[in-house]
């Protein structure tokens, strides 16, 4: 493969490793260098998403705050009609900002909440006024939730629509039920309406048969890709097409069934626990939680490489030209935090 990384150095010591992925080739060593330059932000509280506008970063924290960073770190409050419920994998999760954010101050959030003793997720529109984010519209509620498998990624696509990943909420059969919002990738316009060209009539469902998808990204040709947590390994990278069934819980990994789509990559008996993803130059980069690395995948070919190690659980990625920002989740109860955790680290891709 054409290597973008492999050996990492500088302020944090990391080295590349080879993949045990059974359906792909792998590489260790490197022709070029990738460097983790610094811990760019420290002392975050289990961050989930990074967005950037100009020189300012906004990061959601699962407890229900938004951390703002532009030379210094401050936490901003959110006024919601239904409070954030932070338990297990739930809480304040995905965030996307409007294209005209510098003028409108509008953003979109995905968060977990309790109602009638049950756990749900919802998508809301918020507006930033001074240092407070205030809910202006509830776009979609009653997305099945639980302590685990809440999905949570929001991205505005190249078509201007809002895409949302949802988990199966611990009830696998919901992923195959097209009348349920669980275990899906959903698509809506920015006012919360069902687009006329969605694959199923009057439905937000864009694709189904997902277990716990947590990453969304498009390549330059407009092709959508997603990352997904498997059951006891068999994590997946999927190429998403409108209306397709991605198999959970009927198939996983190399298994085949009529009308169901196999992943373009899967982890076999290993576990990546893939979360946020970004794409650059036909390489898809994945934040890996259980794998504790950033891993790259060739989109034109079959190859995967561990680009970093030893920074712990990685939740989300953001690309600014050739600088990759990554946030850790070492304080989420499953990691081994160091004094500075959680952190956003700055990674320079090889030139």
Supply the key terms:
disordered N terminus; 1% helix; five-stranded mixed beta sheet; globular; 27 strands; 351 residues; mainly beta; 1 helix; eight-stranded mixed beta sheet
Describe this entry's structure for a reader.
It is a single chain. This protein has 351 residues and is mainly β. 1% of the residues lie in helices and 44% in strands. It has one helix at 101-104; strands at residues 7-8, 14-15, 25-26, 35-41, 47-53, 56-61, 65-69, 73-79, 92-97, 106-115, 118-129, 132-144, 154-156, 162-165, 184-188, 205-208, 213-218, 224-228, 236-240, 265-266, 274-280, 283-288, 293-298, 303-306, 314-320, 323-328, 344-348. It has an 8-stranded mixed beta sheet. The longest helix has 4 residues, at 101-104. The radius of gyration is 19 Å and the shape is globular. It starts with 6 loop residues before the first strand and ends with a strand. Residues 1-32 have low confidence and may be disordered.
Write the layout of secondary structure elements.
Blueprint: E1 7-8, E2 14-15, E3 25-26, E4 35-41, E5 47-53, E6 56-61, E7 65-69, E8 73-79, E9 92-97, H1 101-104, E10 106-115, E11 118-129, E12 132-144, E13 154-156, E14 162-165, E15 184-188, E16 205-208, E17 213-218, E18 224-228, E19 236-240, E20 265-266, E21 274-280, E22 283-288, E23 293-298, E24 303-306, E25 314-320, E26 323-328, E27 344-348
Parallel strand pairs: 3-24, 8-12
Antiparallel strand pairs: 1-2, 4-27, 5-6, 6-7, 7-8, 9-10, 10-11, 11-12, 13-14, 14-15, 15-16, 17-18, 18-19, 19-20, 21-22, 22-23, 23-24, 25-26, 26-27
